[in-house]
């Protein structure tokens, strides 16, 4: 079964007759969660509405893949309704259609990681975040599409194909959480999970005019995995159409797990369900821009982002340009070494096996080979650069409350291209150099919210990153919420929805 030929409504054997209210998919996740809890709408009605939306729009964008058989889904939705009738609510996601990203395992579902090596492989267990979403009442209807092994900021792979942008399917959706970002923007999911190592939540958020939060390392347990100590780059986080909806999903995702010793011991559910309103007058914003000309920028992106800065002024914030005193090329080279170290270590066995090696995409081979060439001292030296960068950022946060810079250096590009070879007249020397704007937050290990920043001359979205001090995710969400209300950019709908 695939979404291109799935029926718009379930068969009589799959579900009883229920209203398929298209308006349900327009509700915010917070409103939907409350309506399900009070039984204003049933889980069955919600499921039918979202499946109808998927049937209508997913064939145009290919955001959701590996769909789950519908008769079983409707049986589970009826079970969720019966639980509510008995006074049992599993959590804020009770009855929510969800599509776990096709990178980490989800029990009973195909997990390909976008690679033909794993095509058809069914997982036996859940990643921690999927375990929590499932226990919280979510209904897993499909997987969200991802590039091979999550490598690269453009969602395409040889298993499922390319995911198109929510505003123009001929353009890139970003990546690696491209399927999730498009599904949220097009109301095929109320919220979605994603992961972020090098902008994998932030780039698709910027490309699809939604919100994506790169969480602090350990806030949301990322695993289990074969290695749980060195890996401090990839994080799991939420995507949504509003900051309040981000917080709703984060309330389920966040919290410690004994299997992951670096997970943070925040109280479950708190403060993520608290009101987001805060005093913004007097907050100091440092505008990093293009890092003093270091970042290559497509014409129009920087100007679009600079126009969006005015909304911080409306909130009573002061905005001051600042260029950190740091060698950004040195930071980039350190990032390359630490990333290749992680990717090479995680995938060396696939590289050394001739059969699987032949199925790896060139960018994966490049990353793994680079990692295998590194010495221990090179990795240590790169970690020292990272530590120096963190200290530079820490000192900046003594002067500023938040830092802001573009979430992407380009507007969504032609989806037929694997990655931009040139940006702003500069040749890109690696497959991910065009995403360098997301590296400062990752290397400093600070939370970063990607938020809509308006649209360029061709009508394609741009995004801003709001960075906060280490482990100040809640403060970042509060400022992001205020910016969302002041700017109104997130209310701009895709023309595909009309």
Per-chain topology:
Blueprint: H1 29-37, H2 43-61, E1 64-65, H3 70-85, E2 97-98, H4 128-135, E3 139-140, E4 143-144, E5 156-157, E6 161-162, H5 178-185, E7 192-196, H6 202-208, E8 211-214, E9 235-240, H7 243-253, E10 284-287, H8 301-308, H9 310-314, E11 318-321, H10 328-352, H11 354-357, H12 362-373, H13 376-399, E12 402-406, E13 422-423, E14 426-427, H14 439-444, E15 448-455, E16 461-467, H15 473-487
Parallel strand pairs: 2-3, 10-11, 10-12
Antiparallel strand pairs: 1-4, 5-6, 7-9, 8-9, 8-15, 12-16, 13-14, 15-16
Radius of gyration: 21 Å
Major β-sheet strand ordering = 7-9-8-15-16-12-10-11
Q: What is the molecular shape?
A: globular
Strand residue content = 5-15%
Secondary structure tally, helices:
15
Amount of helix: 25-40%
| Total strands | 16
Class from helix and strand fractions = alpha+beta
| Overall pLDDT metric | 95
Given as residue ranges, the uncertain stretches (5+ residues, pLDDT < 50) are 4-19
**Biggest sheet layout:** 8 strands, mixed
What's the N-to-C terminus distance? 27 Å
